[in-house]
Give the backbone structure.
Amino acid sequence: MIIYILKSAGCLALLLLFYHLVLEKEKMHNFNRFYLLGSVLFSFSAQITTFTTYVKQEVIATTAIIMKPNHIDNSVLIIEENTIDFSQILIGIYCLISALFLLRFSYNLFKIIKKIRINKKVKQDHATLILVTDKILPHTFWNYIFINKAAYEDGEIEEELFTHELTHVTQKHTFDVLIIELLQAVFWINPLFIFLKKAVQLNHEFLADENVINQHKNTFQYQYLLLNKAAWNNEYYLASNLNYSLTKKRLKMMTTQSSRSIILLKKLAVIPLLTGFVFLFAERVEAQEKDEIIEVVEETKEVQKELSEKEIYATYVNRNAYVTYKNKEGKKVSKLYTELTNEERRKLVLPPPPPIKFKKVLPTKKQFEDLKDTKKYAVWVDGKVVKNEVLNEYKNSDFARYSNSFVHKNARSKRFPQKNQASLETTEYFKAQNAKRVQDFEIYKEIHEKLGEAKWQELPNGEKIKIIENPKIETIEENYSKHNGEKVNTGFKDLNGVNHYFVTVGNKTKYYNKEGKQTNEKGGAISNRKASSSNIIPGNYVTKIYFDGKIFCEFNDGKSSKKVTKIKLTFYLKENKLYESKRNQEPHFIKSLEGRQEDLSIQFSKLGIMYFKLSKLDKKKAKRPILPHAPYLKLKKNTKVFYKLRSEMTDVDTLLIPPPPPAQNASKEEVLKAKETYSDWKKITGNDVPPPTPSIVNKQEKVTVTNFEITFTKKKNRLELTCFIGCAWKELSFTTNNIKIDKFGMTNTSKSKKSDFLFDLKKEESKLILRGLKGSAWTNLSFSINENQTIKINQFGMTNN
């Protein structure tokens, strides 16, 4: 039951997350209403679906051991102690708290019904007005609208407010609220119902607001009306009220323009979402199946001899077992049983293999009853995991075979925490399994016989193998190319029953498994790393190998620019550290002089551009630059800028945050929409600043960073420059000030179209000031330089390399 509740809570959490991130932003409130209510039903029903997964039995990498069933000695006296059942106590506490919540729900309902009975009623349209003496805003419960009696009689109730409340009545919003309240009372332990209720009620307000705007066609007047009524309170717990959650989100929704195509796409996105959640939260049952026998037998150095059927059966049973032993040098060696030579097999002492047909072992009545205890036993019936209660449908005589094994503490899992794992086989399943074991061994014997008749075949690389003709097995080979006059063959080949990709160059063959690792001719991995893409096929760069239209294996892509990326990351971290040290100096940014504020703002913008240019991997290693005025928010009212902490902001303050500008490369429609949004915001806040424009990166910042490396050496009356990388000149020397340097030397232009980089240089006493105009990641460099001192710079800044 606990797992069921946790799963349903997880499902509901994901559905609500999708709603808040995707659906809530669009004007499709009717669809959202049914999505939210359906989320509750779906979260409880998704787990009813059951999927059966067939998994292969794991082969233990040791020699076969016959496990005898554990028989319980009935002569042992077991004394049961009387213990307190805490689970029943917890259930009782849970039910008591639920009863209290239901009592509160009933009391609130009673209060509303009492208000309806004792106050005057007036019929209007599809609703009944309840005139109360309380100073309240109009609010709705079912078909009743509660309004202040004096305000109604004096005609002070605006038409927009009546339209708002009538929408709640006609669309039966109270029904949604009552359902959520009842569920919240029963499943009070799940806090997600609190967020669900808020989302449902806010969506109700979206629906009512939309209806008012559609009828009265005056958005801004309605917004001001709501802001004027924002301070009024509502005393009725279960009613829908006018000023519920009057936030920026609700006011913004009134002016939001949604695209029909986007709304349709978002609605369609719910279908794969629900399908995925069915697979994610559905109950899964695992069933075991036997591995299919696929044999490819290769030549060994030992001459194969005739084997008796008993020896063949021993090989068949142990074919997937690993044998560990010490060789003549005293080192431990681990091999598959099939890799052992005949001499090694003769020296090996193995326990006798289990019989090909198992004998019946019936559970006793007491053993069968014990298996129903979920705390002690995990149960498999006919190879499938089942709940212990399923055994109530059987008798002990319905089973032909029973086995039980003790599970040590370190081998238990969350799914199977029990000390014992029991397996039961019905009579039909038991007979079918015995017949299958016989059939599998007969197929193996047939392959063994064909092996003796098969002829040796030579591969292009000179290797000799015997291939058994079997429709289930094939060696795929193709002539790929020639390398240095040698023939190159590639293809697929079974090594010890596992498919491998091979490449033969001349007389040398390399094998690769599905993990892209190189193996030996027996399929054993000889490397722990993926092979390099440039080392697979000579003269080619191979990253992926496909088999039957699917990726078979992938190799390590050696092409990267880690060196350049590392330099960029190091430079960014250095600059960000310098910025943080300045930002954290006293006084705080908001109390600083205008000059310091401008300097920090410029540095923040530069760091933002640098962070944007980092690779995805480096972005994970670095942090975004922090706003200079953090943790304060920058607000503007009547063209006056001021700062506030988020915790100090009111709902009115949130309206002062300007809407974001259109994105880069925004379309004309998006730019127009941004201007309209800004115009609406300006009318509400009274701000008079230029409308937002698309975020366009400076042309200089769009230019690709170019490799160059230059040293500056100060002499008595001149400055000497030496270029090592990226210049058409080698050395420059000058005494003038305020000059520009590019790829071709000194220049007077500020654009330098033909050059890959350009910067200007200015001397101030012992200081050099450089301004990057093109081809550099930096825009400003400033450093002191003494006589005969040399400073080196590149496209990323100063460097010691």
About this structure: The two ends are 65 Å apart (CA to CA). The first strand starts at residue 50 and ends at 56. The chain has 20 helices and 34 strands. Residues 659 and 681 are 7 Å apart (CA to CA).
